[in-house]
Design a protein that fits this description.
heterodimer; A: alpha+beta; 4-stranded antiparallel sheet; about 45% helix; B: alpha+beta; 5-stranded antiparallel sheet; 5 strands; globular
Chain lengths: ~190, ~140
C-alpha cells in the first residue's frame, strides 16, 4: 500500500485536531439559512442546485491552498486512488469533522464514490415534500470540483444517494474527466 | 385515578392559532373534534392568565370540563401545548410535554420550517404519535 493511503486517516485526525472549530449547530443553521434564502431568491430548485455547486466551486478553488498548507500532507498524490483517499480521510475530516469511505471504483479507475454516514450540514433538516429535487448539500460537490481543478484534475461530482431523500447514507460520485498530464509529476499514474 | 389517557394534543402558535393537532383517543367520538376545539380555546384564556403568575414554563392543570382535564405547557417562545386528557398523573404529563417540547425544538431548527405556520412535518407527526402511544 502506498504510504499516502495508509497514513491518510491519521493525517486527517491530526489536521482536525489542529484546526479551529465552530459550534456545529451554528454551522448547520447558517448553512440552512443560506440554502433557504437561495430557495426564496431563485424559486427554481434546479437553479438553486446550480448556485450551491457554483458556491462550492468558489470555495474549493480557494480552499485547496489552505488544505495543502495545513493538512500535513507530504508530497503529491501518485494516482487517482490516493487522491480519493486524501479527499475522503483528510479533507472531509479537516473541514467537516467527518470521514468518508471510498467505494465503487469503475473498471477504468477514473470514477469513485464517497460515502458519508454523517453530514454536519443537514443536522435538523427535513426537506419539504415539494422540494425533493433540491440537492441540499451540493456545495460539497462544487468544493471538490473546484479544489481538484486547482490541481489540474477536471472532475464532475454529484450526489447519487441522499439521506434527506430517504437513503441510508449520502453518496457522492466523483468522475475524473481529465488530468492535465504536463502539470502532474512524472510518477502520476492515472490507472493505478 | 393515576392512569392518564391522553385524548387530544393541540399546539397553539404565537399568533394564537392552532398549528398542530393530534387525536390520540382510541374511540373517535363524532362531536369530540368540535368539543375539543371549544375546550382548548377556552382553556387558552386561562393559560394566558396563569402564564403571568408563574416563572415556571410548565404545566398547570388549567381547566376541567365534564370529566376531562386540560393541561397546558408554555414554551419560551410563547407557543402553547394543550393536552385534553382523562386521569391526572401530573408527572407523566409533565414528562410528555417536555418530550414534545424537545421534538418541537428540533422542528424549529429545520431551516425549512415556517414559524407559526401549520406543522406539516411528517417526522414531527410520527414522533409525537409515538410519544402519545407511550403515555397511554
Amino acid at each position: 500500500l502506498p504510504t499516502m493511503s495508509k497514513g491518510a486517516s491519521r493525517t486527517g485526525e491530526q489536521a482536525w485536531a489542529k484546526v479551529p472549530k465552530v459550534n456545529g449547530e451554528f454551522f448547520a443553521l447558517t448553512y440552512g439559512a443560506m440554502v433557504t434564502q437561495l430557495v426564496r431568491d431563485f424559486e427554481d430548485v434546479d437553479e438553486v442546485n446550480k448556485q450551491l455547486e457554483k458556491m462550492g466551486y468558489n470555495i474549493g478553488i480557494r480552499l485547496i491552498d489552505e488544505f495543502l498548507a495545513k493538512s500535513g500532507i507530504n508530497g503529491a498524490c501518485q494516482n487517482h486512488r490516493e487522491v480519493a483517499d486524501v479527499i475522503a480521510k483528510v479533507a472531509f475530516k479537516m473541514f467537516l469533522g467527518v470521514v468518508a469511505d471510498v467505494t465503487n471504483w469503475n473498471a477504468e479507475k477514473n470514477s469513485f464514490c464517497l460515502v458519508l454516514y454523517e453530514n454536519p450540514l443537514t443536522e435538523f433538516v427535513e426537506l419539504p415534500t415539494e422540494m425533493t429535487g433540491l440537492v441540499y448539500s451540493n456545495i460539497i460537490c462544487g468544493t471538490i470540483r473546484g479544489a481538484l481543478e486547482m490541481l489540474q484534475i477536471r472532475a464532475e461530482c454529484r450526489f447519487i444517494r441522499d439521506t434527506l431523500k430517504g437513503d441510508e447514507v449520502n453518496e457522492i460520485q466523483v468522475n475524473i474527466i481529465e488530468v492535465m498530464e504536463e502539470q502532474m509529476g512524472d510518477d502520476y499514474n492515472d490507472n493505478s | 385515578d393515576f392512569r392518564t389517557m391522553a385524548l387530544l394534543l393541540i399546539i397553539v402558535g404565537q399568533s394564537g392559532e392552532p398549528i398542530y393537532e393530534l387525536d390520540a383517543s382510541n374511540n373517535k367520538v363524532e362531536d369530540f373534534q368540535h368539543l375539543s376545539q371549544f375546550i382548548a380555546h377556552s382553556a387558552l384564556d386561562l393559560v394566558e392568565q396563569n402564564a403571568w403568575t408563574t416563572n415556571s414554563t410548565s404545566l398547570k392543570s388549567v381547566d376541567k370540563f365534564q370529566d376531562k382535564y386540560v393541561s397546558a405547557f408554555l414554551t419560551p417562545s410563547n407557543c402553547k401545548f394543550l393536552l385534553i386528557h382523562e386521569g391526572r398523573n401530573e408527572e407523566s404529563i409533565r414528562m410528555f410535554f417536555v418530550e414534545v417540547h424537545e421534538i418541537f425544538i428540533k422542528l424549529m431548527l429545520n431551516p425549512f420550517t415556517e414559524v407559526d405556520a401549520p406543522i406539516v412535518s411528517g417526522f414531527f407527526d410520527k414522533k409525537i404519535r409515538q410519544l402519545a402511544k407511550r403515555i397511554n
